[in-house]
Structure formats: C-alpha cells, structure tokens
Amino acid sequence: MADEPPVGRERDAEDEAGPLVQFVRWLDSRLGLSYPLLRPVPVYSINPFYWLGALTAVAFVIQSVTGVILLFWYVPDPTVAYPTTAYIFSSVDYGRFLETVHLYGAYSMILLAFMHMMRNYFVSTHKTPRELMWVVGMAMGFVTLGFGFTGYLLPWTVVSVDATNVGIGLLGPLPPALSSLAQSLLGVSGGAASELVRFYDIHIVVLPAILLLLLFGKMYMFETHGIGAPAKEVSAAQKRTVPFFPDATLYLLELAALFSAALFVISAVFPYDLPVQYSAVASQGFVAQPDWYFLWMYQLLKIASLGDNLPVALTLITLIFVALFVLPFIDRGGERRLANRPRFALLGVVFVAELAVLSYWGKVTPGQTIADEQAALVLGGTALVVALVFVGVYRLMFARLRGRLSSAGARQATMSMKRAQLWTAGLFTLLLVGGSLAISGSITEAAAMATLGASTPRLLEFSGYLAGVGLVVMGTIYLIYRLDLANGSIRTKVPVLEVGWLSNED
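Predicted structure:
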C-alpha cells in the first residue's frame, strides 16, 4: 500500500501526459481495446426497438444467401444479363420468389437502417462515448445505399439502366478530376459492358467486404460500451442482466424468424414483375426515375434543374450527409432526455416529414421540373406546419415532466384511460386516412394539371398539403413518444396521447 501513488498524483500524471498519449487514451475509451466480447445484456434491452440494427444485419444475411444462389445463373454481360434474369424468373424452381425476396430484402435492409438511425437520434445514443459508433453506423448506411444503387443496374431492364444513367449523370457538375475518377471507378468510360461488370464487382465483392469490416468494428465498440442505457433511471429489475448466450441469442433468433417469415410471406403474396429489357427504343418511351429510397434526392434535383442550379442541389445533399456523419460532434450536450431536447427533436421530425413529402412528390411527378415557388410552398409549408403542430403537442406532452402544469391542471387535462384510448385512436385513424387521401389527392392533381399545361390553384394545393402533413406530423410525433416511452425517458402517463392498441400499461 505504501508504494501506491496517491489518487491525486495519478490524476496529475494523466493531465500532464502529452497530446499523443491523451489521444490514444481517448481512442481507447471510445473503441474499447481491452474489453471482452459477448457481454451480458440488460433486461430493458429485450425490446425490438433495441435490435433494429441486428435486424438490418439479418436482412444482409438474407441478401447474401439469396444473392449467392442467383449468381449460379446470372451473367454480368449487357447481351445476356436480362435473358439470364428472365430465365431465373421463368425456368428456375422458385426463381421468381428468390428474385422477389432479394429485392424486398434490399428494401427492408434500407428501411431498417433508416429506422435504426432515427431511433438512435431521438434517444441520443450517439453521445459520449458512442460518437465513433455513430460515424461507423452512418458509413454502413452509406454502403447500404451503395448496394441499392449498384444492384439496381444488374437486371439490365429499361427501368434500371435509365435510372442508373440519371445517377451517373450527376457526376457531371463535379470538378473534372473528381468526375473523371468516379466515372473510371464505375467503369462508365469503358462502355456498357465495362460499366455492368464494374457495378457487378462492386455489388458482390467490394461493398460486402467494406460492410463486414465496418460491422466488425461497430460490434467490437458495441460490446465495449454495451447497450445504450435509458436516459432516465430504470428499476433494478430492468437493470438486471441476462447472458448473451443463450438468452439474448434466442431472443434475436425469434426476431429474425418473425422478420424472415414476414418477408417471405410478402414476397409470395406480392411477387415482383420483371420490367422490359433495356434498349434504345424502349428507353425513348420511358421516364427515368430512381427507386423509392433515392426519390427525395431525385425531387431536389428536379427542383434545381429548372433554374440550372444542379451544383447547388448536389451541395445541399452532400451537406445533409455530412451533417448526419458529424452529428455527435454537433449535438454534444450531456442531456439525453427527449423532453429536454426540443430543438433537436423538432429537427428530427422536420427531417422525416420532408423526406416523406419529397419522396412521394417525386414518385407522382416523374420527369417534371418543379418551379421554385411551388417548391418553396411545399417544403416551407411542410416545415412550418410540422413546427407549429410539434410545438403544441410537445408542450402538452411534456408539460407535466417539465413542471409547467399544475397537478390540478394535469388532472383536468387527462381523461379516463378508456375514453382517452377511444378518442385518440379515432383521431389517429382519421388523420391517417384523411391525411393520406388529402396529400395524395393534392399532389396527384398538381401533377396532372402540370402535365396538361395548367396551373393548380395555390389555395387548393396548399390546403391539400396542409391536411396531408397531419399524417406525417402525428405519425412521427407519436412514434417519438413511443420510442422515448420504451426507452424509459418518460415515466409519466399522458393518457390523452395514448392510442388504445399501443398503450403502455407498466
């Protein structure tokens, strides 16, 4: 004991360490270079929302298995790529089912990755010491989008080729040296055959290797830091840990089985129809449009193309991705509870709402350029309505948590559980149905009027968007509420916001 240095002296020695040593210690505290793997998990994490990342990995496994099977017949050559794909559809046992599972598996992988990102954003799992986990996760999400972009071309249909050509055309505004390098890496300069082979190689070799490396790094950091703890204190029973094997492993297998069963059933009930083969003639009668996960970018580019501001749109898209990557170094506060982070909560809700509106808008206006005033009306109106509704709901939802509502006022603001469930379930259903019809009807009408060369009345158009945004606002806010409730940040009942079949009875 006499030889041990005092605690204060240890701290002084640590403070006096050089910048390199301090950086290594910081890196070690984030990466966890000396912690064991497969640590036990707490009981509160036995919740599907905590396993969205794991389900994304399950989707990747399904993609890998089905992709390897499809490689037995597929040939990456422009002259035979479509015939071999069509052969799988028509002549291989369960070939159409395999192709459909592979396609829908890609869709689910992208959707789960997005849900995982937004859930982590709203419950603040990107904060210290998990900053690098977020960055690695964003890189994995970017690779996932790369899977979608490169795999889309492989069947060599008129839909896939034209949509890919649109994406490649976006390399034009880049600086000449960077544009030339990107086109060379994608094989564009070597013609159609070189391009298809390069996309094929990237899709089945390069991207899987990168994703596996990133997955290994993230899992190592995940096991180092463990499950992200709820923002608010939970009970001792919820903190109790269970072994990763077999308890948590069996739970993950149950989730994987449910997800796989749902994917297979949907693939069997709604099989994919192969579009026509690509040709110059077929391409002339087809309006190029990307798949749904790139539609929001496609719509932004259509807005910019009218005023020849394509570089501006590309810069905006780049800044969005950069902001997502560096989010942990922007949102650095120690507060994690959603009730005390209104600005970041609002930004997240507006982000989801704008993505939803842009994606649907791009879907119903293929090939149409969008006027600046119309874009300002739709996007600005969406942000304004979302902000106004969010502020009202936020104040109601968190007034009791922040001490701004007296106990008497709280009793008056709440109803009995049964009445609250009935009223709010009815309201949510009305918004779901009415909002869907309103936004789809107004945007479809605007698209039809634009096709006919007429102008849609601004008041009618705005009222449709206003009503439709209610769906996105209520759905997103309610999802945030449920996620935060599941995470333990909200322990106070707010029955007026409860929906019966999703109410929390703990």
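Summary: Residues 1-5, 7-11, 403-421, 482-506 have pLDDT under 50 and may be disordered.
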